[in-house]
């Protein structure tokens, strides 16, 4: 079982086996790990992934507000269901025309 020492400043070095298992290859100046506290008081650790450049738009506050509003509409039953790709396309076309 691998283990590590932590100095009085809270710094430690992971054993090579753990770095390999976590995908911490040492090619970056720093790696980010997420520590999630479990219900029984222990922690789970896993590598954090950066948001790809082409997905930054999703985390913009305006987009987050729009997503929250859409989820509220869905929970309240304010949505239209379509059956099949043709019906879905027709619905999207109607939405585009109404703008």
N- and C-termini, Cα separation: 62 Å
Radius of gyration: 23 Å
Count, helices: 3
Q: Sketch the major β-sheet.
A: 2 strands, antiparallel
The helix-and-strand class reads alpha+beta
Percent of sequence in beta strands: 5-15%
* Low-confidence runs of at least 5 consecutive residues: none
- What's the overall average pLDDT, rounded? 87
- H-E order: HEEHH
Describe the structure.
- This protein is of the alpha+beta class and 99 residues long.
- The protein is built from three helices and two strands, in the order H-E-E-H-H.
- It has a two-stranded antiparallel sheet with strand order 1-2.
- The termini are far apart.
Q: What layout of secondary structure does this protein have?
A:
Blueprint (H helix, E strand, L loop, with lengths): L15 H7 L10 E5 L5 E5 L13 H15 L9 H13 L2
């Amino acid at each position: 079982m691998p283990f590590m020492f932590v100095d009085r400043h809270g710094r430690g070095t992971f054993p090579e086996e753990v770095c390999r298992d976590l995908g911490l290859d040492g090619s970056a100046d720093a790696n980010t790990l997420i520590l999630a506290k479990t219900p029984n008081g222990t922690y789970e650790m896993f590598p954090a992934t950066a948001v790809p450049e082409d997905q930054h738009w999703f985390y913009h506050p305006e987009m987050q507000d729009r997503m929250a509003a859409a989820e509220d509409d869905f929970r309240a039953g304010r949505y239209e269901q379509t059956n099949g790709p043709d019906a879905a396309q027709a619905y999207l076309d109607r939405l585009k025309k109404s703008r």
